[in-house]
Prior knowledge:
mainly alpha
Amino acid sequence: MKCPSCGAEIGLLDKVCPYCGTVNTESSGHQAEMVHYKKQSEKTKGKLRRSIAQNKPIVISVVVFLFLVIGSFIAMDVAENASLYTHRARRREALKKSVEYKAELERYLEAEDYAGFVAYKELHVIPEYEEAYKEFEKVWDVAYYYCTAMNSIEEAVMFGADAKRYRMESYVSDCQRGIDMFYFEYESNVKDLQDDYKYRDRILDMKEKVEVAMHVFLGLDEEGLREYLDSSQNKQEAYLEEVLIGE
């Protein structure tokens, strides 16, 4: 027979061509090896099939377990980041609806409803630092601390009568801190305000309302207010304790 590669005469028992080294696929040795490998392959496949059949319940359990583990991790990630995803979605919505949202914010300011203004801004995650809302940046800073101050005054007054039942030192401390933060934020912003700033009157109005509350609930007239603001934190808290709980 001839070598299929070089054409030289080769014997049937030659596994390779002695002239070019090409494998003689027609040789009896090669055929025997192929039969042997095929048998071995079938045996291996048979063992594998039997092994899979025997261990099928375990395999299924492992696969189910892996899916449960992966699913739990995904659920945990979604739960932990749900608020973040919601925050980002609302922020994107606020940028898309800036005209509508700005009109609503202006209505709150015109009505002098500063608590509503702050609540609306936070609910819709309005980014006051973005160009679309830049005009609200300063009034928002003051309005936020205005609400903090007013809430802290109201809470301290509300629980003052029941000082023995509640930890009044925390309410007094919160009241002092809330007032202090408002005046700090007010002074920080008002010094940079231009006379033509659109919401300048609203910022001044917030200061006036805080001072009215301090007069009505804390007994501070104009002179007393100046003395209070110029005093130390300890003196301020001592005054509030005396007024609110009589100590």
